[in-house]
Amino acid sequence: MATDADAQRPARADARKNQEALLAAARDVFARSGVDAPAREIAAAAKVGVGTMYRHFPTRSELVAAVFTAEIDGTAAAAADLLATHAPGEALELWISRFTRFVATKQGLSAALRSGDPAFDALPDYFAAKLGPAIRSLLDAAEAAGEVRSGVDPLGLLQAVGDLSHRAPSADGSPNAMVRLLLDGLRVNAAGSAG
């Protein structure tokens, strides 16, 4: 005999699938068109109706915050994955490349974050709490391996990479020449000195 819980499971699975599709579509649409892209464009890309989108995300700011949070989570999680599969210096460089793409896909987010909308209030602290430890782990491993200089402020490095990525973004979201120059400045040469 079917229970109420059994009847609700498919709806929850469908709802979760729709929410994931909306987040993926919004991420791609925001990267292409900015955070002010029409709701119809996002819903169409997710292959759901606009009503379904608004059931999951009643306001645009909630959708923007959800996309941003999911991207932070994915970027933070990548640090451990990269350290497990690459040398520390290479893992750091690959993670910075991912972070640069993350920054490049957030057109208009800076303005949205400064809009005063309460949906964005927790995002700066969330960003620092998730990405600060991620880059710290990468810097610590690369420093212990003798590949980068010591004493680098992790959040300061993220800020510098973000600033450079916004000012001169590369076409594909990969680190631009200025970000590469910054990374070169972190390296320790064969004689053991910075530079």
What does this structure look like?
- This protein is an all-alpha fold and 195 residues long.
- The chain has two domains: 1-58, Orthogonal Bundle (Arc Repressor Mutant, subunit A); 60-195, Tetracycline Repressor, domain 2 (Orthogonal Bundle), CATH 1.10.357.10.
- The chain has helices spanning 4-33, 39-46, 50-56, 60-85, 88-104, 109-113, 123-144, 154-167, 177-186.
Summarize the structure.
The chain has 195 residues and is mainly alpha-helical.
Mean pLDDT: 84
Instruction: Tell the overall outline.
Output: elongated
Do you know the CATH topology of the largest domain? Tetracycline Repressor, domain 2
Radius of gyration (CA) equals 20 Å
N- to C-terminal distance: 71 Å
Most strands sheet: none
Count of β-strands: 0
CATH H-level homologous superfamily name of the largest domain? Tetracycline Repressor, domain 2
Helix content class: over 70%
What is the highest CATH level, the class of the largest domain?
Answer: Mainly Alpha
- Structural class computed from helices and strand pairing: mainly alpha
Give the count of structural domains: 2
| Tally of helical segments | 9
CATH architecture term of the largest domain? Orthogonal Bundle
What are the segments in which pLDDT stays under 50 over at least 5 consecutive residues? none
Q: Please provide the ordered H/E string of secondary-structure elements.
A: HHHHHHHHH
Q: DSSP strand (E) fraction?
A: under 5%
